[in-house]
Amino acid sequence: MIWLAKRVWRFFGFSGVWIGPGETVPTEVVFLRMLGFVYFIVIAVGTSTARTHPALHGRGLAVLLALISLVVGILVAYPRVSVGPRMRLAALALITAAAAVLAAIQPNGLWEVTPYYVAIVAAMRLDSKLAVWVLGLNLITLGAVAAFSAHWGGVLGTLVGAVPWFLVMRQMRRMREQNIALEASQAAEARAAAAAERGRVAREMHDVLAHTLSALALQLETTRLLAHDRGVDPDVSRAIDQAHGLAAGGLEEARRAISTARGDPLPGPERVRSLAEAVSEQSGLPVTVDVWGEPRELAADARLAVYRTAQEALTNVRRHATPDRVEVRLDYRDDAVALVVEDHGAVAAAAPAGAGYGLAGMRERAELLGGTLVAEPTGDGFRVQLVLPG
Known about the structure:
Layout: H1 2-11, H2 15-18, H3 27-49, H4 58-77, H5 85-105, H6 114-125, H7 128-149, H8 155-229, H9 234-261, H10 272-283, E1 287-292, H11 300-320, E2 325-332, E3 336-344, H12 356-368, E4 372-377, E5 381-389
Helix pairs in contact: 3-4, 4-5, 5-6, 5-7, 6-7, 6-8, 7-8, 8-9, 10-11, 11-12
């Protein structure tokens, strides 16, 4: 019994008031829904108790069938029920037909409230022209039955009173549509403002950072050529070459960061191989990349995490270790993706000095995505392993 009461409560749209925090349904709307629910009960009870009573024979059978049809039509046409326009239109026609039968057999029944219901549902759920036709058909039908039965009474007031309800509900619907359009416009303006801000930041980064790195790379290239012409010590030339490579790599990363700020696609696993080739070319280390499993598209945050982790791990190898070789493995598992960057030939007992902050940032990024990052020494080097769900 309690379960049935809750189902009925939720069906008529009161669950946000009784159950569940954060409900934003206005009090007036809740009151109107409750009033409609009370009307629904009154119609059913009043029609079943008015003369002629529902029965299984004669006029009583007609009342019983009309009452059942009226209830079914009300439940199907209810605005919160997700049905197609044709089904709702058929339900409203069923309500009109059932109300006409009750009007003829039970002149003093509560069928008189059905024009209000038809007016509300038509105004809320049908387009303007169709809603006017549906309400007009309902009013003409019930008016004709009342005139034929010669019991106008309060029928005229009911039929006329349904029209203002229809106009009010149409106005409320129009206001709601305008509010939705306004919210969409505001959201679009917010996105445009955010895009403009990203563009401004990208321009600032380009003007300051990219230009500075570009000048630094050019200066280092000039210094490298000068050192080569003057026969400078090979170790010094090699150090200048490495500095030039770092500056060029930093310039490339700055350009990628600017592209990201402009909304361009973020780097992902597909760039790990080119990243490894660049490190191998700049440092002289043999770096191999193996891909296991079938590559698939990852979420934007996961894509970036894989790329940044590979970048950080390879940068640490180049800066802090002297291995014989480096292995990069990208494993696409059924429910996860794993990245392993492992160097061999440089015995290490802990993380490379100065790498802690970068690895800590990568670990935090992995944990935010529901994954793990392990950085630990091995028997002949160091291993960084990232595992992300997906």
